[in-house]
Amino acid sequence: MPSPHALAGCGLKPPMDIVFLVYGFAFLALGLIIHAQPREGSNLELARCMGPLAAFGLSHGLLEWVELWGLLHGETPFFAIAKPSLLLVSYVFLAEFGRRLVQCSVLDTKLSHLLDARLFVLPLAGLFAVSASTDQFGLALTIGARYLFGFTGSLLAGIGCVFYYRRRLCSALSDTALPRIKLASHSAAVAFIAYGILAGLVVPRAPWFPATWINQESFQALWHVPVQWFRVLCALAITVSMAYLLRVFHIEGRLSLTRALDAAQCALDQAHRLSHRNEIILRSVADGVYGIDAAGQAIFINQTALEMLGFSEEELLGKNVHTLIHHTTTEGKPYPIEQCPIFQTMRDGRQRRFDQDVFWRKDGGDFPVECRVAPIIDAGERIGAVVAFQDISERLRAEALLRAALDAADEGSRAKSVFLANMSHELHTPLNGVLGMASLLLDSQLDDEQREFAGYIQQSARSLCFLLDGLLDYARLEAGKSALEPIDFNLRELLDATLRRFEARAVQKQLSLSHWIDAHVPTLLHGDAARLQRVLLRLLDNALKFTARGEVCLRVYATAGSNAEVWLRFEVEDTGLGIPAEKLDGLFAPFTQVDAALNRQFDGIGLGLALAKQLVTSMGGKIGVESVYGAGTLFWFNVPFALSRQNHEAIPHVD
User: Fold this and answer.
1) E strands in 502-631
2) Which residue among 149, 231, 397, 503 has its CA within the 20 to 30 Å range from the CA of 599?
3) CA distance 22 to 623
4) CA-to-CA distance for 120 and 363, rounded, in angstroms?
5) What whole-number distance in Å separates Cα of residue 552 and Cα of residue 480?
6) Is the pTM of this model over 0.70?
7) Of 410 and 467, more confident
8) What are the Cα distances from residue 201, in Å, to 65, 71, 322, 345?
9) Is 317 helix (H, G, I), strand (E, B) or coil?
């Protein structure tokens, strides 16, 4: 060991060996305490910050003992390189601890992105570059490490202790633990900052500013005590305060255990309440409910099921339910358990519902039931099934009565339709006579007034015939007596003939009556031409009836086609009154009128559109309407037609 005089010559007091011993021991103890502290499973970010601090404590404690070795046995060239390198490594670990602690304290701010781990790359590179450019590499590296990483790292660690306590620990710990943890975190902050000043700014003397002014020799000259003594006090304060701060993990564990126990107790209480509630529900539910285990034995059953089956709870629990209540089919044959859907559910785990089965009472009687079966699954394993059933005796009786009433109503409806069809047919005979006589009168010598009267007679008879034709068609369709009568026909001739029936009426009302046919529409078709014409007559009659000025237009498009069939779209558009939007949905219902006052003004019973829909539907098509109230209406329908064998036109495919 060097003599006291040698130590004094080095600027050190005689007890410096003890100083370095305690100095190194304090930081080594810090590293070992952190390493021994269990932090696995902690939710605190502090747990992920302590690794670099432990590395700092171990490396810096080792450095101080290397200093002690050099003090006692003299310096070597190896120590001249090892000590600056070890000093730099230890302070980098300290700076990393401070960076992590501050970053996890400000995670919810933009500052956290600035505290990236790459923050130290440039300072390290600059430090090595500057140190290598001098002729005192070891001294330059030592001083630069203290300035850049010792002081900065200690400052970050101190700030991080305060920030982390305020931003994280205050909300994570209980109120009773906070005062001591606050004291420990603030004490650690003060100790780190003081250590940063004493170790990071008070450096060995060197011919560079500020080391020429603030250095260990000037500090000793000012305070008459080596700076290492104060560093030892800071190291001890850091170790003690951080060791106490580590108690947060014990406190967190206790809080987690307390919360887990509270949660378990809460879950247990909830389970008791749920069990009691389920028992009440099971007793109160109107359906019969019972559960069975994997062996088919009853494990629970509600009061409703017991009352329907006539058993007591003791007679069913623990017994095979199938052999007691489900042993025989509705035909009186034995019901093998392999065919029972309840046991099939237990085998394959699928829910089942059977609308009608039979259960047997204790007294030997049976009753029809509707059942629902679901598997009971625990940890992925089927351990039983739950069965809910209803006695459907009353429902079956009500359904039988309802079917009888519906059959009677259908029979009455068919009789009404047959009667209406017969009456409409009988009424045609005298009307045809009236039309014939009116035609004869118009062909005879009449004055203007007589000719006008005869014209009224003829027009009224035609209107009545048109109305009766509609009633007859509707009655036939309702009675199911109207079959399709497909023929070959010329579509363009049919459209011309249909429009000619309305030309005089259009001229009388000063309306434009026009039509347009797409070039893709074939001329010769095969289908029910009479039904197509009746639909067009109804739609054109409606359009002319409710249009006071403007025009009525009939358009025909080919919407899809092949070499054997074509779909046509017919549109009848007018510039009449239009239909309110709220009236469109029920427009095709029989005897429906948009406005009863208008129908009284224009005649009609609200059957034309219903008949048109039935006719279009019977041809395999679809009908619809588009209208803007006050601006006009467009009725459309799509129907398929076969191509006539006489048609040699190439039918294009229309998308």
Assistant:
1) 512-517, 524-527, 551-561, 565-574, 622-628
2) 503
3) 100
4) 90
5) 33
6) no
7) 410
8) 21, 23, 90, 80
9) strand
Tell me how far apart the alpha carbons of residues 442 and 607 are, in angstroms, rounded to a whole number: 31
Nearest to 516 by CA among 478, 486, 547, 557: 557
Q: List, for residues 158-180, the tens digit of each pLDDT value.
A: 998 988 888 888 877 776 778 88
Question: Do β-strands 551-561 and 512-517 pair in parallel, antiparallel, or remain unpaired?
Answer: parallel
Q: Please, are residues 417 and 475 in contact by the beta-carbon 8 Å criterion? A: yes
CB 24 within 8 A of CB 62: yes
Task: Give domain 483-643's CATH superfamily.
Answer: Histidine kinase-like ATPase, C-terminal domain (3.30.565.10)
Nearest to 139 by CA among 204, 92, 62: 204
Give the β-pairing of 632-643 and 565-574.
antiparallel
HSE-CB for 522 with a 13 A CA cutoff: 29
Could you please report the per-residue DSSP string of 438-507?
A: HHHHHHS---HHHHHHHHHHHHHHHHHHHHHHHHHHHHHHHHT------EEEEHHHHHHHHHHHHHHHHH
Confidence band, pLDDT 50/70/90 cuts, at residue 12: very low
Cis peptide upstream of residue 210 (ω within 30 degrees of 0) = yes
Residue-wise pLDDT for 109-159, tens only, equals: 666 666 666 777 888 888 888 888 888 888 888 888 888 888 988 999 999
Q: HSE of 488 in the Cβ direction (CA atoms, 13 Å)?
A: 6
Tell me the C-alpha to C-alpha distance, in Å, between residue 242 and each of 4, 161, 173: 35, 10, 17
Residue 104, Cβ density class (10 Å: 0-12 exposed, 13-18 middle, ≥19 buried):
buried
What's the angle, vertex CA 311, arms to CA 309 and CA 313, rounded to 5?
120
Distance (Å, rounded) from C-alpha 229 to C-alpha 23? 9
CA dihedral over 414, 418, 424, 427, signed as positive or negative: negative
The token duo for 502 is 């309305």
| Phi, psi values for residue 357, rounded to 5° | -145, -170
Residue 655 confidence (pLDDT): 40
The rounded radius of gyration (Å) of the Cα atoms in the chain is 51
Q: What residue ranges do the domains of the chain occupy?
A: 4-245, 251-284, 285-391, 397-461, 483-643
User: 285-391: which CATH architecture?
Assistant: 2-Layer Sandwich (3.30)
Query: Tokens 């076969």 correspond to what residue?
Result: 642
pLDDT of residue 5: 38
Report whether 442 contacts 451 (CB < 8 A). yes
Separation between Cα atoms, residue 213 and residue 301, nearest integer Å? 93
Scanning 332-447, the segments in alpha helix (DSSP H) are 341-348, 393-443
Q: Is the pLDDT of residue 636 over 90?
A: yes
* Confidence band of 428 (pLDDT split at 50, 70, 90): low
Unique residue bearing structure tokens 């564990």: 253
Cα 358 to its chain centre, rounded Å, is 42
Q: Please, are residues 299 and 317 in contact by the beta-carbon 8 Å criterion? A: yes
